[in-house]
Amino acid sequence: MKIKIRSAVYSSIAVALIFLFTGSLSISCAFGVLVAGISFVALSGKNQRSESALIAAWPEVIDHVMSGIQSGLSLTESLAGLATRGPEILRPAFLDFRTSLYRHGDLTEAIQELKALFHHHGSDQIFEALLISKALGGSELLSILRTLGDFLRQDLALRREIEVKHGWIKNSAHLSAVTPWILLLLLSTQPSTVAAFSTATGGGILIAGLVMTAIAYMWMNRLGHLPQTPRVFTGLKVGKS
After folding, report:
1. Domain for residue 228, yes or no?
2. Could you give the count of Cα atoms lying within 13 Å of 52 in the half-sphere of its Cβ?
């Protein structure tokens, strides 16, 4: 909801500024719709970057847990310590985990709550490894975590490389989509352009341009979308009697 409100605010500001610049209501409204779409995509991208930062923090979580276990702490103590020693982006979640753990004393239930909170295949793998180790005695816990950490780092590096290459393509597509509108804005300084787009035909052309821009962007986004690794541990309840 906050994203929609901020997009509406930016759109209103754009309409006012473009109207002062061109004196054309139809052109101003067209740019208002365009700015609303751009701001919505940009603000949504911030959420995606936050999710990427969250995913990138899991190898560090494994390092902290391994370090705690190697220093003599129990698995429970190592996980609870992530509330203060773990990656900053994950500390609030592990603070809730520690509170939940101290409240009911059930490590399995507390880990299941973390799984439900993060709902990501990488975190699922970590938590299932911890639950399996707890159920079987944990003699191979460090080896399992080390292997899992290496796998997550390799997967993360590969995805970053793919995202960089896709980013070049997306940026080129964004520039191609915005260029005609920049040209329209420059031409709007001419009275003849304002008069042409103030007619019904001109308004129809603006609407068609907005629709075609939206379709092209969604098509480009669909082609550039990276498939997500499915969650395969969602139905498992390891360690529960």
Report:
1. no
2. 12
- Give the count of beta carbons closer than 10 Å to the beta carbon of residue 73: 15
Identify the sign of the CA torsion 6, 9, 13, 15.
positive
> Which whole number is the average pLDDT over 148-166?
82
Q: Are 80 and 97 in contact (CB under 8 A)?
A: yes
Say if 38 falls within a structural domain: yes
Distance CA 176, CA 179 (A): 5
The DSSP secondary structure of 22-81, one letter per residue, reads H--HHHHHHHHHHHHHHHHHHHHHHHHHHHHHHHHTHHHHHHHHHHHHHTT--HHHHHHH
Domain that holds residue 196: 2-54+190-223
Over residues 116-143, mean pLDDT: 75
* Cut 0.70: pTM above it: no
